[in-house]
Structure formats: C-alpha cells, structure tokens
Amino acid sequence: MTLTLRAITRAEHLAFVAGRPSVSHMQVPSWGDVKPDWQAESLGWFEGDGRLVGAGLVLLRPLPRVKRYLAYLPEGPVIDWHATDLERWLDPLLAHLKRRGAFSVKMGPPVVTRRWSPEAVKAAIADPGAHRLRDVPGTSHEAAGLDLADRLRRMGWQQTEPGGEEGFAAGQPRYVCQVPFAGRTLEDVQRGLNQQWRRNIKKAEKAGVKVVRGGPEDLPVFYGLYTETAERDRFIPRPLQYFQRMWTALTAEHPDRMRLYLAHHDGEVLAAATMLIVGGHVWYSYGASTSRRREVQPNNAMQWRMMCDAHELGAHVYDFRGITDTLEESNHLLGLLRFKVGAGGEAVEYVGEWDFPLNRLLHKALDLYMARR
C-alpha cells in the first residue's frame, strides 16, 4: 500500500522522535530554527490507517536569483531504510519536494556500513602503506548498509562526498568516531581509554582542573576560545550569534537538548565544549581551547566529565562526530583522530550523502557554481 507524505506539526514531529531510541540532532524541529537562511519543514509518512510511521526535517535553500530550492535532509529522514520497497518511502518524498519547487534533493541516510575498532585504527595509522581509512578492511561490516548504497544507485540517487556546511556546500561527515556505551558500565568505558588518556585525566585532577556546566551567559567565553581554536586549526569560525541561536532554539524544545561545559584552572577557562542530546545519543558538538597551560590537560578532563554525564543520562553512544579519512602524518587533523580514538572510540562509516537531481540543468549549474567558489 502506498504511503502518504505531508507536512506535520512540530508537536507531531517531536512525539514521533520521542517514541524512538534516538534520531540525529539535525532531525528535530528546533534544528530548523538554528538555520535561519533555510526554510524548514517537518514531513511525515503515514500508513493507510493514519499511523505516522516516518518523519523528517527538510531544509530548503533558494538558488540565487531563482525561486527554486535545494532541499536537504541532514542525517535523515527517519524512515525504515531497510524496507524491501524503499521506493514506497522515497518516491512520495521526491514528489512532494518537486511540488515545493526543489530542483535537487540531498539526504544523509543514518545507516552504518563499516566499523573499525580503536585497535584497528591505531594499527592503520602506524602502517606506512595505509593512506586512507576507506582502504583499510573494517573490523565489522553492515550488510544492510552496503545493500542500501546499491539500491539507491539503482533508483537514480547519486552519492556525494561530504563538503562544508556554508552556503550550498551542505554536508555532514561520512566518517565519525563513536564510543559505544550500551551494556557497558562506566568502569568498562574507563578501561577503554588508552594509557595516555588515563594519564592525562590524572594530571588534570592533580593540577586542580575543574570542569563545570555553563549557561547561555558563558557562551562569549566559549566563543573567545573557539575563535582562537579556529585560527590555530585553520578553519572559518561561525559567529557568536550562531551558538546563541542554537542554545535558544534547542533548549526551548527540550531543556536538556544542549549543554555547555567549561574547564577551569587557576581562575581561567582553558577549554569549553558543547554537547547535544537526543534520546540515547549524545554528541560532542563544538570544542574550543587555548594554547596556554596545555600541560594541565583540560581537554581530557572536560571530555571525561562529558562522557561520565552522558553515561549517567543512560546514553547508548557518545559521539565525537567527524574524523578525517586520511591517515597521512602530514594532515593536521590526524592528531584529532588519535585523540578521539584514544578515548575508546571506534571509527564508523555511514552510507554517506546522496543527491537526486529533479532538474538536471539547475543541479549541474549548482555544481558549477560551487566549483567556482
């Protein structure tokens, strides 16, 4: 039987999310409020008996000077990705978005294809013959994820490599690092930390580093560290207003959707980070630190406090978010990969993001526009 797709209310969307173990923080209604340059719409899939069986947050961004839209469902939609009749879910989505004026649809199915244990990642980094994580055999494979990629290709979807988030280069990481918590005690999680992590946590404790939770009034302090981090690590920082808007939007939807942590030492904040929570999934979202007094290891202390709090919340996974695919020592992001894997995180590959051109000419024009940028 055909599924019906239509716009749903925020209340309907949130009720659906609440009935699941977790969904991406980019698939809750408040995420649309974080992105004011995009028009946001909550969509629902309904069975013939009226039951809501799927939901998604779609962001619509107008093409410059043309009343046509790029439609983007980051890390979504939340549907039955393993259904044998996947067209039953995706065809109504394409039809609806075409009526809305979309010239291209981008989505990121939240489906895993491969995992690498911390030991496998460490061995790959040490192997001079290994250059990219994707070329290293995974510790485990998810057959359903690999099958999904083949099915999407046959349906006309095109796989894309992740890009930036600004403008039209909407994209989320295909490779992430996650610490599994399900079925593990906090002592189990602690044993998963490597020796350097355990040593650094003890150093921070001995040095008197104190990690506290902050509020919206502390966002400017976080932001000062964040801009310093951006300059050091060579990325373009978001404006302070972005984080203030994120706090306001997410905590209005749920008071514990977003948290801020700050690591203090001798009266100075040395590190800060934001944490996002949806059901049993907890994300380390944005991190910031100063280069001063790094010997007291504020980042390890802060992350361990966040992991402890996430475990106390009953999280089934602590998500460090994106990691680099490259294993080259020359890549400045390799140190970040080592840091995250050292916390006991496994590398996880998702099926990636996929495009469906509804208007091939405009879709191609967008590709050319982005290439020139």
UniProtKB/TrEMBL annotation:
Domain of life: Bacteria
InterPro entries: Acyl_CoA_acyltransferase, FEMABX, PG_Glycine_Bridge_Synth
PANTHER family on file: LIPID II:GLYCINE GLYCYLTRANSFERASE
Organism: Streptomyces actinomycinicus
UniProt-listed PROSITE patterns: FEMABX
GO molecular function: aminoacyltransferase activity
The name this protein goes by in its record: Peptidoglycan bridge formation glycyltransferase FemA/FemB family protein
Signal peptide positions on this chain: none
Family membership noted in the UniProt record: Belongs to the FemABX family.
Keyword entries, A-Z: Acyltransferase, Cell shape, Cell wall biogenesis/degradation, Peptidoglycan synthesis, Transferase
Tagged with keyword Cytoplasm: no
GO terms (BP aspect): cell wall organization; peptidoglycan biosynthetic process; regulation of cell shape
